[in-house]
Amino acid sequence: MSRSLTLLFRRDPARDREKNNVRFEGYHALWPEDGRQVAVGLDAFCTHGQRLLGLGKQLAGCHEKLVKLIFLPLAGRDDELNRIPGHRVRRFYLHRQGQVGRIHFLDGTPTIASFEIGKDEARILHWCGLPALADGDIQWFDLAAVALDGVHPARSRQPALQS
Question: Where are the domains of the chain?
């Protein structure tokens, strides 16, 4: 059963960095309902993540984008790829080790994207299903993302974040 989450990603150059010769662009993740910062360890994305979420060059001069993320759990790696018209879809897996779940690319390469029980917001942890995994378990999933248009409450009320 799929789970969706809508977040506002606001560009923050102060969070830019490079790790192992991979360049990451920094972002704040905000709740669109009230503009409150999301308590989650995701604060930067590589080129692949930016493309999937429609960030980076796809921002086309804007500083923020509202993105709907759909987590589609799978029985295994070889399940048929989910296709959702208008959404970018990529396959990953979440590997739980202790209280932390790290997202990995299809080929097993770990991303910097991780979630932590007791640190990240319950809404985020439920979305990715981390609490339901036992230590050492893997959950294959397709991640679908689509940019949402229109004015939302956080954009009209929330001033730019200071770093």
Answer: 3-157
